[in-house]
Amino acid sequence: MLKNQSPLNNENRNLSEVFKELQEIRNQSQNHSKVLHTHNIQNNKKSTKNIQSSFLKNIVKLGVPNILLILTVLILGIATFSPKNNIFIESYAKEEPISENVEYEINRHRLNVQNIISENSGMDRVKEQVEEERDVEFEIVYNNNPSLPKGEEIIIQEGALGKDKVNVVKTYENGTFIEEIILKKENIQAPIEKKIDVGTSEFLAKHKVHIGDTMYLNSDYTLKKSYDTNSEDIAEVKKYIDVKLLELPSEDWCKVSFDGIEGYIQSKSLTSSYSTPSIVEKNRIQRILLTVNIEMQLNKVSGLTLNDYKNIFSNLSSDTNNIFKDNYKTFYNVEKKYNINGIFLASIAIHESNWGTSQIAQDKKNLFGYGAYDDTPYESSYEFESYAEGIETVAKSLVKYYINPPGTKIYDGETASSWYYNGPTLSGVNTRYASDKDWHKKVYSYMELLYNKLI
């Protein structure tokens, strides 16, 4: 065995022995400190230096390996017996008296130095001052709009975020943001508010319509100059006719446009396709009927459908032989093919053949007396193989010679010669077609009869 070898040099000692040796060293230091309190300040400083020097010499004698071991044990002791949150906070220069009766409990559990150091090294609280731009939220403004259906919303103006420049101090603990203090804030771009209109009209909501939509009259009505029942009359509007909704000055009145004529009508006199689905078809028929008059143009199609023709020529009490009922498709097809009003053509046939009961109509299938002269009507009239042939022949003749001005393009690449043209109306055709000056009035009465079958 080597002489003067320090007991601390034995690497096989257990942890309890090391603690005891450390305690003896600390006790020596504390005893010196107590003695020094009885001397003056100068001697105290000198003695302290001597003690510290002596202590350091003793430490040096221990050797590097033992010094490292002692430091490790000291760290373990601090970590074990000191409050966790106060580690490394107290100044090492400040020494607290250690009771002589301090007892140490032997820690028989293995300590992980690395874990202890890691846990206590991450307790830092960090502050940083930064300057940054931040978004500023915009406000949403709601406004009641009586011109929108109740409950409906429409965006009038989109909102836009603003910008603030802020100088702020942020605090982080263990890498996690804790709080911030705004030192200065400067608005560099104002936000733009979002504007939303909210509908309040129960009338519009009920009929599922908006301003600018089409509505329909549910009764005949006279448009007014202002929304007052005593206001000046502007125009008569028939039931089922469509109008354009322009304004809603109140829940009881609407401003509308009827074929370019603007006026006011009470809300209760209007309906919509949502509220009254059948109104659309009734409106179509009513629009057709509005074009029916004695001066209407006959070189235009009627706008009627094949089903309309079927309804018109069904259940005609005067059509005892069902001639017109059986030929409704012929009148419809001729109208489309030759651009002539089919109801006008049928009305001539009814008038000239007395509903198909004349001798010429029955014997020669000629409903128009086509080709007949006043002195020899039967003999001079044309004979056809079918009623359809006679209907088409007369239609072509009227288109070519009576109802179109010269040069009008007609069927089969031809143009109208217009030998007997005096205008595309009943009275114009009457001039050269019939010797009876009231012929056009009689024909028109049948046209009204047939058209009214649509109602």
Question: What do these coordinates show?
Answer:
The protein is an alpha+beta fold and 455 residues long. It folds into 4 domains: 7-121, no CATH class; 125-197, Resuscitation-promoting factor rpfb fold; 209-285, SH3 type barrels, CATH 2.30.30; 291-454, Lysozyme (Orthogonal Bundle). It has 15 helices and 13 strands. The protein has helices spanning 15-36, 41-61, 64-81, 113-121, 202-207, 279-290, 306-313, 323-326, 328-338, 342-353, 359-364, 377-380, 387-401, 426-433, 439-451; strands spanning 125-136, 140-149, 153-157, 162-173, 176-189, 194-201, 214-217, 221-224, 233-237, 242-247, 253-258, 261-266, 270-271. Helix 14 packs across helix 15. The radius of gyration is 56 Å and the shape is elongated. The termini are far apart. The relative contact order is 0.06. Mean pLDDT is 83; it is low at 1-12, 32-41, 43-48 and 81-107.
CATH architecture verdict of the largest domain: Orthogonal Bundle
Strand order of the largest sheet: 12-11-10-7-13
Q: In CATH terms, what is the fold-level topology of the largest domain?
A: Lysozyme
* Straight-line distance between termini: 135 Å
Strand content: 15-25%
Uncertain spans, ≥5 residues at pLDDT below 50?
A: 1-12, 32-41, 43-48, 81-107
**Helical residues, percent:** 25-40%
CATH class of the largest domain: Mainly Alpha
